[in-house]
Amino acid sequence: MNTQTLEQRPTAWERFKASHFLHSFRTDKVAIISFSVFLFFALAALFAPLIAPYDPYDPAMIDIMDSEIAPAWSEEGDERFALGTDAQGRDMLSTILYGTRVSLMIGICAVLMQAFLGVVIGLAAGYFGGRVDSILMRIADVQLSFSTMMVAIVVLALFQAAFGAELYAKLAIFMLIMVIGIAEWPQYARTVRASVLAEKHKEYVDAARVMGFKSRRIMWRHILPNTLSPILVISTVQVANAIISEASLSFLGLGMPVSEPSLGSLISSGFAYIFSGSWWITVIPGVVLVLLVLVMNLLGDWLRDVLNPKLYKG
Amino acid sequence: MSTQESLLQVRDLRKRFNISGDFLDQLQFKGGKIVRHQEHVHAINGVNFDVSKGEALCVVGESGCGKSTVARTVMGLLKPSAGSISYKGERIDHLSDTALLPYRKKMQMIFQNPYASLNPRMTITQTLEEPVRFHNPSMSGAEVRERVKEVMYSVGIDPGWGVRYPHEFSGGQRQRISIARALTVEPEFIVADEPISALDVSIQAQVLNLMMQTQEERDLTYLFITHDLSVVEHFGTRVAVMYLGTVCELAATKTLFAEPKHPYTQALLSAIPRLEDNRPNHIKLQGEVPTPVNLPTGCVFHGRCPYANDRCRQEIPALIAQSDGSQVACHGIEEGRL
Amino acid sequence: MALLEVKNLEVTFGLRQGAVKALRDVSFSIERGERIGIVGESGAGKSVAAFSILNLISRPGYISGGEVLFEGKDLTKLSPQEMRDIRGNRIAMIFQDPMMTLNPVLTLGQQMVECLKAHRKISTAEAREVALEKLRLVHIPSPETRIDQYPHELSGGMRQRIIIAIALLLDPPLIIADEPTTALDVTIQAEIMELLLELCDSQNVGLILITHDLGVVSQVTQKAVVMYAGRVIEQGPTKEIINDAQHPYTQGLINALPQQTLPGKRLNQIPGSMPSLQKIPTGCAFHPRCEFVIEPCSRELPGFTRSGGCSVACHMVKAMKEKAAAAG
User: Fold this and answer.
1) pLDDT, tens digit, for every residue of C27-39?
2) pTM, full prediction
3) Do B277 and C218 touch (CB under 8 A)?
4) Where are the domains of chain A?
5) Could you tell me which of C73, C157, C155, C159 has the C-alpha nearest to residue C111?
6) Which CATH architecture has domain C4-90+170-237?
7) Any chain C CB within 8 A of the CB of A23?
8) CATH code for the part of the protein at A82-307
């Protein structure tokens, strides 16, 4: 037998360092900046309790006398509050840190929920095909024809009316995750189904079938790992979308309560004061929201370009 | 017919694919009425053959002749529309996936495209160990690794490469790994669907040699699907030539190459470019392969056959055994016209 | 003067791991009406050679040295505008996949007329006449109806005929065919090859046939150029190369064909596989797979040695020639 030898195998870290993925990241300024900004927000949100100078959830730390103080850099500012305070006298910096935390958490959890539903349904539809596929995809079509906002508004308003605002305030975060998660699974289902259809006809799937592996094993162990790239791409964009949805709902008064504000409810609560000159209550969280969503979309675009199998074969 | 033990029997196998789409697509407005209209691709139309133990039966034909469909139907990847497939006398064409499990260990398959037949997200070791564990749940981890190591050695792959992913290998090495995967469950019968057509000439020789070597070492039987007649001449024990979903000639390799009988086989043989040729000197066929959606009546080859007569246009010829052991489906041969 | 003369052509790909030479020191020439074959396995650089003749190498690749003299002009120095005038007009190219050249939303007639009008001052009616004439030339049955059909209405073999007709539209003196029959069945391949051969003779067109199939080369071409890892290793009259190859790689390639071995016996395989361009071995690129390695093979790039009508890049052949010369 002829002997064939390969050179010493590089370690996983070395391979990552030499990878196309890292290289295209390093040569793309937009990606680097977006990722840095996102990382900044994510870390700030994660460590909010350590970083924030005040606890906005603690009524004892709030003094109504401090309300509507302008940011520290303006003439009427107070150095205790770097970004000023809101109408209730809460420190804006702390509130925004906690708000970003809530927004990100809702966004990520809602997307996890979407991804779970979408992957299961998309895999089944794509793999089994035929009638299963038709039924599941028609359900997805119906779901998509109701807009996310419409479903969310109806469900949340009904819940609030039925169980009262107090219970709602307690469960708001779960309700938002549920509603946004359920409303947007068809995006995932369609993407997963499309890539499953493409993978299913490759010979490694036939090889697995010839081995006698069960459908479930083939779906999860063989096909799913090969559909991860598009899932990753839509996930970044979907988190941004979920954050926007949550902000919109909060702005309409159906989202997070004022006592536990997200970025959306901050913007909403400050909106009433914008004409009395207290612009910062709305504008600063607004800028944070826009930045956060923007960098996530930019990252999503970059990921799509890098992972696009048509442009680059891994 | 050979008197050797017959391993696989294929009887009057037919497969058609419905290409008319959804129920709604099938509805057509014709003559003031809505009618349901269905179209089928007739991929295999009554194929009969036996594979005897220890031989390499080659199925040859041009693209669209149904040779890959035969392979996939035999392996249970497709359900036949009609006919039967028996393995050692037991019918296997209508078994459920669970009932097929014991046969999966005995019958394995090698695929055409070495770049698509290995899961890109699994290392070579994972790819090779999974089937062993699956089919031998009682085996210990060490036994599984031992089996995989032995198979990797036998196909010329260093077991130390097991931690790598498929994209780190060349086409020829991947095809070795594919062969190794089929061998891990210790099969006795292997269907090879164009295993070398995606490879370079020098690599084709390596892989063919490997397949011949494993055949001797493991007493394997092959059903070898290919479009390359020069490979068949070298590799096959017997050859089945397919045209438009039917077998038109089935003969021992030597007989077929020395004395091709069916007009299509003759044309196919003459078209192989050979080193000693100074210019193309093939038998010209008129027209083109008809579509398998609307099969011609009678002999499927009659539209291109220079010897076709009225009987060829109307009656489907059956495979008839000749004095030299070959079987030919041609009215002209039967009547002694050719 | 040769119709096309390629001299020491070198193509480099600027990858981020460093510059990689996809083509080194490639030289050959072709006369009008001559047919030459460029043979090699995948990765040998035969397609790169064809594309660089037409200056079609796209970034990160570029022609880093050498000349491509076509009718006395160096094609590597032409402006994109001048190059467009050569492509299609003076040198036509036939690709492996006909659908790469055919536009699926235009009828064959529209595409052919458009192509003619781009290069010639000609009325639509006249252009259509020329198109019909070329379709007849490639033996398309009932060209008057075919000309108004779309590419998808034709079979694979028919499409490749159309491509040849399009290549002939402007009566170019040279056609480059890159694996023109690889996607086709043997019977159709034989027809297309015969057609190409017939046309080269009747129209006095030069043909560069790029293929991996030695049988096809033997049938169609007069001269053959064998490539390995981006370099020409042997070239000369086709018959000589097929019957009496000098380079161990060419020998290995020919001997690996199933028809060279008795049925049932093991084939003569070349061990190992073609190196990737990033990892071309030093010296002769073939030496790790070669069974005749002698001392200078692993460090020195072999120059060309004449042997009969062929020139061969092999230390072994050179050493044997020198020995023979010293003895006789």
Assistant:
1) 999 999 999 999 9
2) 0.85
3) yes
4) 82-307
5) C159
6) 3-Layer(aba) Sandwich (3.40)
7) yes
8) 1.10.3720.10
